[in-house]
Model the fold of this input.
Amino acid sequence: MSKNKSSESVKVVVRCRPLSRKEESNGPAGGIVQMDLRLGQVILRNPRAPPSEPQKTFTFDAVYDANSKQRELYDESVRPLIDSVLGGFNGTIFAYGQTGTGKTYTMQGAWLDPERRGVIPNAFDHIFTHISRSQSDKQYLVRASYLEIYREEVRDLLDPNHGNARALELRENPDTGVYVQDLTSCVCKSIKEIEEVMNVGNQARAVGATDMNEHSSRSHALFLITVECSQPGPDGRKHIRVGRLNLVDLAGSERQAKTGVQGERLKEAAKINLSLSALGNVISALADGRSGHVPYRDSKLTRLLQDSLGGNAKTVMVATLGPAPQHYDETLTTLRYANRAKNIQNQPRVNEDPKDALLREFQREIARLRAQLNHRKWRSKQKSEQVEDESWDGDQEKEIEDEEDEEVEKEGEDYMKLEEQRLEREKEAIRGDQDLIPDEKQKLLGEKERMMVDLRKEQEATEQLTAKYKAMESKLLVGGKNIIDHTNEQQKMLEIKRQEIAEQTRKEREIQQQVLIQDEETLELRETFTSLQQEVEAKTKKLKKLYAKLQAIKVEIKDVNDEHVRSRQELEQTQNELTRELKFKYLIIENFIPPEEKNKIMNRLVFDPEEDQWKFQSLVPAESKSSQMKKRPASAVGYKRPISQYARVAIAMGGHSRYRAENIMFLELDMTPPNTASVDCSKDGEPNQSPSVDSSPTKEKGVRKSQSWCHTPKSMTSSPSNVSLAACHTATPAAAQ
Ligand code: ADP
Ligand code: MG
Done:
């Protein structure tokens, strides 16, 4: 990638943690990592190689050994980045390394111990201290979000429904780049508030994990801070700069054990490897600079870090190592990875006046509320002048001039009090007035009462407006106030000195590294030989040196080849497992799903590249749905179902009911008397039934006929059964009913 004026490379620092107690007790003595802090070099010893094999040396922007302090790392390698973010750049810090090498320790550390606080709490401190010390014409808005990527799903850690919430989607905006849709973002006014946000997220992360360690070493956590700063420019207008900071704690980079994993676990392993290997591919493609295509879209992680790798952000990578000999391979891989990342070039630029700055919206809303309040103030001023004019005793004098907020509020309150007193007095006067007739008195009192209610309503509205105004305004941090810090001068000086020292060390290291490179190049030029013997000696020495270098590079090539073969084998293994799974699914589909069903499903499926998933097409196109539901077929206007012209005419003529398309039943009340038929027992010659049955024949044999279109009631009334009905009716009137 070509270097241009504004481009800068990704800063890569390496940190090695101390040997753990367990490692000390069971491994052979000593670690395999040595560090040269002055030169920024890591020297790695292969515990399995013969002593003659040269050690591997890597050079980085800075290295931190087991004795390094959190503060040192922050001041030297992170502070400049956070300063850039406060100036409107995008910044990213990510920790990369094997599980248990100190990624979380570096990023978060022990919160309660000031000595062991990691990058994130120190950054909180830094940001809010900077704001409190900046000039008072600057306004800030700080927001925080927290998410994790687990099994290629983005989850909001600040969502109260974290456990059940669906995965969030990534979207792309031409102005701001890739962002997470619907991600919770909390406005933070102090260190305490932003720490609270962090704790809420960490708890959600812990709750979401079935096995805390497993989960946290398999998920990537991203804490995002947006700092918006508005400052009057030379043109007199307020300009807004937006800095976005990504603090990333990646999943453990070790290879997942592949043997025997199936189903869910296989998917999970494949997906973790996907994100990390995609990250590796992106880094390789960028470092290489030759391949035009950078595979950002291969995973969620690389899409989210697109700006940070080869984009417009400033980036710091902290590669963490363990010193134990048993993890030699992993340590070497991490170092190689980090070494490659050094070559990535970014083009950082300040985000000036972006369209989506929230601060601008806040400022507008505050201005609107202020205008509303001022309008109210003006109204109350007008009214209070009127009150003074007609006041009973004109002793209340009030001057409303000041523009300050408290004044606005106070004046409002005063006016309300005054008005209330006036109404009370007027009410008293009405009550005491002997000339008024009681009706009139009541009416006037009612009117005053209504005025009181109105007054109270207005007062409430003003209070609400004021509260809203204050709440909005309190979210904006103004330089030079808001935060307690109020410059402990000594502490400030101390910090500045510390920064200077860090800067000095950094520069020294850079110079040393340059000197080393130049030394090798110019050695040849400076040498003049007095005798042949001397020349032979010098050249032999040089030859030996070059030979050693050649050997080291040969070993390196072999290592790289080995690693390549290993990763290819792993990929092949994963591929085999996935193929097996695919065959299994095919078997089920071919044997248990009818072909036509399969085709129907296949025709409905479409691939969504945004979400990297197959989706079902909806059966009814979304836009035509509503119009379809609203419109009735033309043939059925006014009716529930189609009806012919002939039938319509027939209905109008009162013709046969078969032409009725609707309301087939007659629902008018049936006015005919109940009609029952009874069996003549004596005629039948059957044995007599029990008296109780006999006495209520209608229960068994009687039929009540309702009037309907197919039976004319007249024919029923003329039936002879009517006679017996009368007899039965007199016997058991209740039963007949
Ligand atoms: P990771 O997040 O990479 O899986 P952790 O940050 O959880 O690893 O670290 C594992 C353990 O090592 C923790 O107990 C942590 O306190 C310890 N540790 C890591 N780095 C350091 C360090 N630089 N100094 C002291 N202890 C460390
Ligand atoms: Mg961790």
